[in-house]
Description:
This protein is mostly beta strands. The protein has a single domain (4-199), classed as Galactose-binding domain-like (Jelly Rolls). 14% of the residues lie in helices and 35% in strands. Strands 2-1-12-6-9-13 form a six-stranded mixed β-sheet. A four-stranded antiparallel β-sheet has the order 5-10-7-8, with no helix packed on it. A three-stranded antiparallel β-sheet has the order 3-4-11. The longest helix is centred in the N-terminal third of the chain and has 20 residues, at 3-22. Mean pLDDT is 81; it is low at 5-22 and 202-210. Bound molecules: 2-acetamido-2-deoxy-beta-D-glucopyranose (2 copies). One 2-acetamido-2-deoxy-beta-D-glucopyranose (NAG) binds at residues 182, 185. It holds the Pfam family Malectin_like. It is a single-pass membrane protein.
Amino acid sequence: MSLSIFLLRLVTIPVLLVLSQTTPTGYLLDCGAGGSSRGGATESGLRYVTDEGFITTGNITELEQKDLVPILATLRYFPDSSARKFCYSIPVIKGAKYLVKTTYYYGGFDGGEKPPVFDQIVDGTKWGVVDTTDDYVNGLSSYYEIVVLAMAKSLSVCLARNQNTKSSPFISALEVEYLEDSLYNATDFNKYALRTVARSSFGGDGELIG
Ligand SMILES: *[C@@H]1O[C@H](CO)[C@@H](O)[C@H](O)[C@H]1NC(C)=O
Ligand SMILES: *[C@@H]1O[C@H](CO)[C@@H](O)[C@H](O)[C@H]1NC(C)=O
């Protein structure tokens, strides 16, 4: 064995070990859960955890409605009207694809009648407008999904005030799940950003409809 091969092994083996131990397959954040989440595990085996530690701003609260699925029962909201953007920072693997899902259930947390309208931004690019008004009137939560290619070792997901934002932006859950390379292979990820899907599910207890 030549010296250079030996050195190469010395260097690469520890790196591979470190990678396999710390590779995040994703995070399911139960926003506003405080000390711990009451949300369970999903089919993928990931567990909901509190969002503490992934964001440094915002206030948390619990809805009074009693029959909610656990992840909708608490939320984080952003009353600071002097700031425009409020961002989560999620550790990811640079170059890997992730499914990002945001879930919103207003629940009248601020004593108002109508949910706020605001923007969501992923890795610095505007993803879309969050307007849960119609779903809320119908007793439904709202969610949005997008597939992104991680450009760095952390992914930012932000809520931002826009000209139509009249009260505090909020979020009920944020999920960032690693996708196998073969998934969405046919799609050109040139920079990133794939598609946004908005779907709704019942706010009351029961399975979220995927
Ligand atoms: C939000 O939290 C901040 C800092 O803890 C606090 O000063 C502020 O009063 C809270 N705002 C509301 C609306 O509860
Ligand atoms: C994914 O794309 C690469 C390169 O375009 C191709 O070689 C590979 O066969 C594709 N994999 C699947 C599962 O489609």
